[in-house]
Backbone:
């Protein structure tokens, strides 16, 4: 049996490096290996290329100045830098506002800060993953050092109203940071027209390599670096520049802008086709998050009464790559905190599968996935104690009520 | 992707004995709250011989939960209920050529379903005897609940003690931070403050408090006395223990029968170790002889 051509639908986890990105990077490993800080021609050319890359990222983000772009090593570093900078710059402010569905890069840091004595306000979401802005307004005060809210959720793709929330924070005199790693490159962003103070980007989510990130810091926002040392990044992030990756990210930013229209129309159409195709055939399945207001590339479907890792393993056997919010895929033994925050029942939260597309996804691939999913779900439901002959057993929670340990 | 063995994958892709079982007269429904997986095991038991003629399962769970369930049904067929009861979760994992540490609870769930089904057949009430928490020590697959319970039961106050009692933290040592957090929490419950090992404090050293040091022969006799004292308890649980050797601070023993490979093996040894320390008035380790090879290598490396 020949192995089927792989289909990669896990682009919210990471993306393939665009070949044009790789091509642009290669010379900077070999002939252009210089240190941008050096006073000779080896370094000078690198310095020029870094400047060009910075301008490209500035354009992608719609930032007013290129000096607002700080290159970091990843999205997590950008998040940590932003939040810790806000705390250090305003030592009298001991509160942070965030949400219950943030990425661990923000949530774990906040948990640690809580142990150190900070107060963390975690905004709740409703069953579609939406925030209540009245709750937000209530906790905004001059005790808050920073608000950190993601632009789009990595699991469901649901947007948060960060532009509006940044306005509210600004009016209250509070710094606003957004983890935009899932949004940047997929949707138009024009930071100059917003009140967002800081924004995190991760290169490998938009077809640049791993190991490169960006922190946007609006001009005049008080800033304290995480890493001190050399004068790189105007002293805001010491450490020799990762020249090849920065240059790669510049190209990736350019390509993302070119593909934005395609993302908004074609990729979205494929995503909608995938969802409709699966839901038309598979009973007891539903889309999680807010279908009316989300990233164009993300589909998160809960398949009730079965477990996500098992679905992924069977998909993988057919060469289809996706991800799941089930406990067993995380290593943490907890189903996705995002699904739990939205009140999705255990028997469905465990069976959530995220398909995240990219500009490389083809219609033929989507058709293959639509054909592959229903038999897999049926096969696993046959094994499930919650499932009878042709549907869930009557009153499933009572019919199968195991002793839990 | 988990590092599953070929056997796990094979049992997942082609699970044996699935779906409801016609004529089943024993059913065990159990779940693992920590991961949300759940399993129904159905047995057809010959009422005269108590031999399991057939076994089926239904599982709501991940790849290894399905594979463990499938393995279990294969393992119990043809066995009497008493024989089947001897199957430990380690046996299930071994049958599958091993499970990742994060997934050992899948095999525990299998063993529990079996015990629940046997209790169901005999008209007994089955209740689960342990809780599970999040995995803390990946090297030795020790979860937070086990660490918490052990700290509470033995009034532990250092990471080193936790390692001695549960093995948690004894491998790569990267889980010392979460262990310290659990210590902080549990010690706070009994009104104490956790002091990290770095911050030195006067050690209430047991060895110094003890009277005169025992002679070699007296020491061996004491050790034998402790072993003899714990045997009846183990025998009651269909297990046993024998003294294999004494190497300095390491007391090598063999746990056999139901004790061997049982989830509670570490806790059992920890309990015996506490008794040893009390009886001898010095710190000793009670180590399974099978694993002593590794310990021996480690102590040689230290020049010991």
Residues:
């Amino acid at each position: 049996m020949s192995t089927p051509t792989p289909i990669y639908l896990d682009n919210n986890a990471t993306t393939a490096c665009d070949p044009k990105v790789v091509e642009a990077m290669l010379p900077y490993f070999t002939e252009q290996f210089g240190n941008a800080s050096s006073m000779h021609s080896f370094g000078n050319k690198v310095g020029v290329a870094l400047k060009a890359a910075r301008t490209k990222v500035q354009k992608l983000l719609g930032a007013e100045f290129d000096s607002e772009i700080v290159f970091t090593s990843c999205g997590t570093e950008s998040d940590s830098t932003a939040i810790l900078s806000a705390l250090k710059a305003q030592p009298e402010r001991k509160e942070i506002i965030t949400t219950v569905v943030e990425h661990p890069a923000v949530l774990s840091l906040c948990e640690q800060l809580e142990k150190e004595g900070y107060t963390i306000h975690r905004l709740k979401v409703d069953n579609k993953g939406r925030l209540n802005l009245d709750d937000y307004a209530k906790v905004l005060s001059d005790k808050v050092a920073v608000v950190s809210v993601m632009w789009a959720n990595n699991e469901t793709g649901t947007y948060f109203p960060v532009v509006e929330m940044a306005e509210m924070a600004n009016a209250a005199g509070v710094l606003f940071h957004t983890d935009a790693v899932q949004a940047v490159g997929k949707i138009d962003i024009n930071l100059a027209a917003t009140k967002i103070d800081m924004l995190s980007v991760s290169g490998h989510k938009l077809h640049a390599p791993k190991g490169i990130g960006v922190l946007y810091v609006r001009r005049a926002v008080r800033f304290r670096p995480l890493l001190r040392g050399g004068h790189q990044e105007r002293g805001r992030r010491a450490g020799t520049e990762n020249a090849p990756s920065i240059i790669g990210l510049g190209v990736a930013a350019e390509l993302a802008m070119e593909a934005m229209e395609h993302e908004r129309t074609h990729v979205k159409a494929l995503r909608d086709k995938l969802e409709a195709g699966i839901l038309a055939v598979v009973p007891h399945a539903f889309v999680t998050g807010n279908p009316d207001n989300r990233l164009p590339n993300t589909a998160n479907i809960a398949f009730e009464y079965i477990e996500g890792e098992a679905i992924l393993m069977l998909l993988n056997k057919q060469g289809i790559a996706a991800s799941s919010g089930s406990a067993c895929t995380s290593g943490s033994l907890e189903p996705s905190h995002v699904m739990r925050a939205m009140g999705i029942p255990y028997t469905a939260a465990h069976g959530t599968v995220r398909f995240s597309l990219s500009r490389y996804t083809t219609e033929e691939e989507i058709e293959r996935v639509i054909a592959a999913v229903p038999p897999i779900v049926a096969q696993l439901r046959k094994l499930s104690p919650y499932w009878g002959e042709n549907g869930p057993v009557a009153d499933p929670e009572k019919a199968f009520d195991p002793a839990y340990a | 992707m988990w590092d599953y063995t070929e056997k796990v994958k094979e049992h997942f892709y082609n699970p044996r004995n699935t779906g409801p079982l016609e004529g089943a007269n024993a059913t065990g429904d159990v779940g693992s709250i920590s991961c949300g997986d759940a399993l129904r095991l159905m047995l057809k038991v010959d009422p005269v011989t108590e031999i399991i003629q057939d076994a089926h399962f239904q599982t709501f769970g991940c790849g290894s939960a399905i594979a463990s369930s499938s393995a279990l049904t294969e393992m119990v067929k043809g066995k009497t209920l008493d024989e089947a009861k001897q199957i430990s979760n380690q046996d299930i994992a071994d049958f599958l050529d091993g499970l990742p540490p994060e997934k050992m609870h899948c095999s525990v769930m299998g063993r529990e379903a079996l015990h629940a089904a046997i209790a169901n057949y005999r008209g007994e009430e089955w209740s689960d005897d342990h809780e599970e928490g999040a995995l803390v020590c990946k090297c030795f697959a020790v979860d937070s609940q086990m660490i918490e319970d052990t700290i509470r039961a033995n009034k532990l106050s250092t990471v080193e003690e936790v390692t001695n009692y549960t093995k948690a933290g004894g491998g790569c040592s990267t889980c010392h931070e979460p262990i310290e957090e659990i210590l902080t929490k549990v010690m706070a419950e009994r009104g104490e403050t956790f002091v990290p090992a770095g911050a030195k404090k006067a050690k209430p050293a047991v060895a110094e408090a003890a009277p005169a040091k025992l002679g070699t022969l007296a020491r061996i006799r004491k050790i034998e006395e402790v072993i003899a004292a714990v045997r009846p308890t183990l025998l009651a649980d269909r297990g046993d223990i024998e003294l294999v050797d004494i190497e300095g601070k390491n007391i090598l023993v063999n746990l056999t029968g139901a004790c061997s490979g049982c989830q509670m093996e570490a806790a059992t040894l920890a309990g015996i170790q506490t008794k040893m320390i009390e009886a001898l008035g010095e710190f000793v380790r009670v180590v399974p002889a099978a694993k002593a090879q590794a310990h021996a290598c480690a102590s040689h490396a230290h020049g010991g």
